[in-house]
Write a structure and sequence with these properties.
The radius of gyration is 15 Å and the shape is elongated. The protein has a domain at 28-74. The relative contact order is 0.37. The chain has one helix spanning 90-95; strands at 2-8, 17-24, 26-27, 29-34, 37-42, 48-52, 60-68, 77-78, 82-88. It is mainly beta and 97 residues long. The N and C termini lie far apart (47 Å). The strands form 3 sheets. A 4-stranded antiparallel β-sheet has the order 1-7-4-5, with no helix packed on it.
Amino acid sequence: MILRRTFHAPSNLDPHESVHVLLTGLKGQGAIRLNGVELGEFSEADSTAEFQFPLPLPFTNQLEICVRWDESAEPVGVFGAVAMEIRQDVDASMKRR
């Protein structure tokens, strides 16, 4: 099963900021891709996962959450929120002062 979402890159990112995607309510195992490039994998033991996006992001992006599915297994997928978060690198911002 592949879940896809197209989104635009956040604007006005400072050099000391990074962009992450947070997945909650995961059931099953799989991988996450951004613009066709795998960012990482998650396992059945993970109910949440987090991945950092490589910067700079193009204007238009496609996020894919690929969940491996076995017909004999329990239902799989993302049953919680998928959120993008912009974080500030505290060390870099302290150096600028």
